[in-house]
Specification:
Blueprint (H helix, E strand, L loop, with lengths): L2 E5 L2 E4 H12 L13 H27 L10 H4 L3 H7 L1 H6 L3 H10 L7 H10 L7 E4 L2 E4 L5 H32 E3 L19
Antiparallel strand pairs: 1-2, 1-5, 3-4
Helix pairs in contact: 1-2, 2-6, 2-8, 7-8
């Protein structure tokens, strides 16, 4: 059998990538997908390969750390509350976090992230109206007055802590994939500038 990748020496068969692609192409949104065999179609297969190896890395690392899903495992909305959060962490990690085991691992490896009081105050100074909200006056909804730091301190800390944890998880996951994953030619990361279908330029 043909191998698309290995994770800690364990093969990921091309047939597994084929199966993932078949599920996508069997969905109602198939018209949004690139045609098979095109440059974009090969990039889709590379993305799917990245997702499969990421799931394998997560399973392996969760087992090594004794992580399991519990009642306190965060929800997907807890970790990825909006589109910005998904962009911050990247599409592969965001897709992997649909799995409760990945979210439990996220909680374990990012549990020591902290945000200092200075960082909170600095954020508020740079974004004084970020959490101002809206008020109704004379039938109109308008921006509320600029809040004092004390009024929004907890919201800012939560916002910054979420971002810090996503950065920490992304870095940790990148390091573990670099240590554990080998990708076969044709199954490189979609953003790898050495592969011929990468069209991203700066």
């Amino acid at each position: 059998m043909s191998v698309a990748a290995t994770v800690a020496g364990t093969p990921v068969q091309v047939s597994e990538v084929d199966a993932r692609e078949a599920v996508l192409r069997g969905a109602p949104q198939v018209a949004a997908l690139p045609r098979p065999g095109t440059s974009e179609g090969r990039q889709l297969r590379r993305w799917l390969t990245q997702l499969v190896v990421t799931e394998r890395v997560i399973e392996r690392e969760a087992a090594a750390l004794g992580v399991s899903v519990t009642a306190s495992t965060p929800t997907e909305d807890d970790l990825l509350p909006d589109a910005t959060a998904r962009l911050e962490i990247g599409s592969i990690a965001a897709a992997a976090l649909a799995d409760p085991l990945a979210r439990a691992l996220f909680a374990r490896v990012t549990g020591d992230a902290v945000v200092s009081d200075d960082a909170v105050a600095d954020y508020h100074a740079r974004n004084p109206r970020r959490f101002a909200g809206l008020v109704t006056t004379g039938g109109w909804r308008i921006a509320a007055p600029q809040p004092e730091l004390a009024e929004v301190r907890d919201r800012i800390r939560s916002h910054l802590l979420g971002a810090a944890r996503r950065r920490a998880f992304r870095r940790w996951l990148d390091e573990r994939r670099a240590a554990l994953v080998w990708l076969a030619p044709g199954y490189e990361h979609p953003g790898d500038p050495r592969q011929p279908d990468n069209t991203h330029k700066h």
